[in-house]
Write a structure and sequence with these properties.
By secondary structure, the protein is α+β, with helices and mostly antiparallel strands. It has one domain. Helices cover 25% and strands 40% of the residues. The chain has a seven-stranded mixed beta sheet, with no helix packed on it.
């Protein structure tokens, strides 16, 4: 084997290894940033009976499937009513009757004003923080 060729291969291997390491580090950092934002917006995926969306800057309106629920927007269920919200990371929140639910201001934070809910957080998504009045609970997958 030509000694010059061997030296060139060694430099090329180091360069490829360095670029690959940099790309992996960059991708890892970006994926953490995305997952932190994934509980800031959800879609309404089920509406049963009296469910309302309560935007902070508008009048309450009846909820419909595929409505967006973002920070500053709450969802309220009436008597014998329920709803389901699905977040980008496939976290699912099911709201029972007489519940007021909103997406919190912190990343991966959910606020429960009143009522009951079921929260499913997929593994390795970063968990969630639930605030209910003066009580705060953390959930990890």
């Amino acid at each position: 084997m030509n000694p010059e060729y061997k030296g060139t291969m060694n430099i090329q291997s180091r360069f490829i290894l360095a670029i690959t390491s940099f790309a992996f580090a960059l991708e890892s950092g970006l994926s953490n940033e995305v997952s932190a934002d994934e509980l800031k917006e959800a879609k309404v995926t089920q509406v049963i009976q009296d469910v309302r969306v309560l935007p902070s800057n508008a009048s309450p309106r009846p909820a419909a499937v595929n409505d967006d629920v973002r920070q500053g927007t709450a969802v309220q269920t009436g008597v014998q009513s329920r709803s389901e919200l699905t977040f980008k990371d496939q976290t699912i929140t099911r709201l029972g009757e007489k519940t007021i639910f909103s997406v919190g201001k912190g990343s991966r934070t959910i606020d429960l004003g009143s009522g009951q809910f079921l929260l499913y957080v997929p593994k390795k998504t970063g968990g969630a923080k639930v605030k209910a009045g003066s009580v705060t609970a953390a959930i990890t997958g």
